[in-house]
Request: fold
Amino acid sequence: MYRFVLFDLDGTLTDSREGIFNSVRYSLDKLGRPCPPYETLLRFVGPPLYDSFERYCGMDAQESHRAVNVFRERYETIGWAENKAAPGMVELMRCLKEQGRTLAVASSKPERSVVPIVEKFGFQPYLDAACGSDGKSEAKTDVIRKAFARLGIDGERQKQTVMVGDRKYDVEGAEECGIPCIGVTFFDFAPPGELEASSAVAVCATAEELKAVLLRETD
Reply:
């Protein structure tokens, strides 16, 4: 039984594409760079921004850091609220909490952005921790381990823990931390087949499917 459930944020608990897309466009415009097509902008949802600006916009590490700083000028004032809860996820959290599960967010997004988002969209009452990165060097594995520390997860508790995320970075980060990951495709931010190829233990298209997987663990 998964008694400890860690959730990714962007693409898992919320549809954050509007705020991210607008902030990426803002950053590229400020730096005099062309904006990539919609299909490429989708790839910005989930992974660390530094990697995305380098991979999809051909930036070196120095320019990527500038792009991220400019992105945050807009995202941390306006973009974070251009967001909405994923259908059924607040209700799923409520159900899991009523069963005595321990819930947390483990997001690569800076923690200073994670906290107001989970508060605004109704997740905060069901969370035992809301963990994000330091916004500088922390990877997904660092954030998951941060959640472990805050929830007191080690030994037997780690065997009862699962990650839920929408990209291969969630699956790979969970694997490095010794826990499984359930993939979700609520908004199709990941390329087709990415989660299966990354060895997610299940892939769910809706909150109801995810609920069925998590509740099945009690049988």
In short: The longest strand covers residues 102-110. The chain has eleven helices and eight strands. Residues 1 and 215 are 8 Å apart (CA to CA).
